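Archive entry. Fields below.
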Amino acid sequence: MDRQDVLDQIAEVAVEVLGVERELVTEDASFKDDLDADSLDLVEFVMAVEERFNLSIPEEKLEGIDTVGAAVSLVVDNAAAESAPAETGTAG
Amino acid sequence: MNAPARHRVAVTGLGVKSPAGRDLETFWSNLLKGRSTAGPIQRIDVSDLPIGFACEIPDWDPEAYLGYKEARRTDRVAQLGFAAAADALAAAGDPATDPARCGVVCGTGVGGLITQEEQERELFARGPSRVSPFLVPMMMANATAALVAMKLGWTGPNFCIATACTAGSHALGEASRLIRDGSADVVLTGGTEACLTPIALASFARMGALSTRSSEPERASRPFDPDRDGFVIGEGAGFLVLERLDRAEARGAHIWGEIAGYGRNADAYHVTAPSPGGVGAAACMELALADAGLEPSQVAHINAHGTSTPLNDLAEGEAVVKVFGEHGPPVTSIKGAVGHLIGAAGAVEAVAAFLSLRDGVVPPTVNHDRTDPELAIDVVAGAPRSVAPGPVVSNSFGFGGHNASLVLAPPA
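PREDICTED_STRUCTURE:
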């Protein structure tokens, strides 16, 4: 899954769930400091991300996900892991 | 030991979000016009429900008060409550006191039922991992009181009262006690309810509490009329700013009047039926009058609970006769116009009563074509009625047998 595409989709989720301006949602943005998200916001945000990408993110993987970039990596890695067996032949 | 303080309690601001209007003057002019606001429910699909009409607030935009993000994480019940509170405070002006001396007391019947039902659907359909982390803060009955405090930074006494249909009047009464006993200088107090949901409509209908006049919703709520057959549920909120009278006078605040007396008791009889003959309600009104130091003959009008259920109106009417004698002070119920706002009812009705005190006029009881022959009471109907300035008794009686009566007095 393309990293920029994931970022764009995560930004859309952040705009909807966290009520932030799109421009603020960069890879470096901290959920807490830049996007004004508290712990409840983050739980809802992760639910919305799971929904958006049709993923289930295990609770233990959420540790240390403080920035948008970390969330993008989490989605990219999860998507890669889940689609690994079927990946050959579907690239592009 | 010194005698405890007994400060007088001024009302310096009113706010209302109701089916008859979301600002004070629209609300009041619609009450005086004497029209029902009942109609088919628009916000949810009611095709499977036994009763699909109510008094609903149309076109509600919470973002004007809370912004996008806060509105999203706030149930409609707290959105309406906060907005009514904000309006009341804006009208009262700056009470200019220490935030630790400012409190909030809010009544509600059930709290965030809309959110609770939505999330229960998620739980049953998709499992626990799909339940929102905001369910608890959105459904809890105390959410409105908490929200008002957080938005204003008020750190004084803050609590919620959940005594069904009595909650609004209980809130005002307990808030007035905070002022009176010196626990606070300013209290925002009111009630809010937004439970036009499938489970609420189904369960009230199963109790036989709701009017079944589906063919004529606008004729369904008819307090004290012999053809009444149940209440019409409504949604809304009312809030008042209470202040120590001496402080309010010192800052030159507009004073609507005073909360001069408060009675509360319990029927201790049945979970939904009022005690026979309205003995609990009568005792409650007597407590409120005694608290205000008034004789029944000094009361200028009664803002009744008047739900339009056969049992409530009978018991309340009998109680009024017990306390005030036959054909005593004029009685009105605004539930003919706005339906039964459950935990908001007492607060919204108190707002109406202070508007009556301002204008010397009592709104008509909508759909009251004639008075139940069982009841020797003087019901204001057909048109507004002018009354001499004087104290109002405002009643609320709830499932559980909770009773509360307030004495609302004109400015001294």
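CURATOR_NOTE: Chain B touches chain A through eleven residues (CB under 8 Å).
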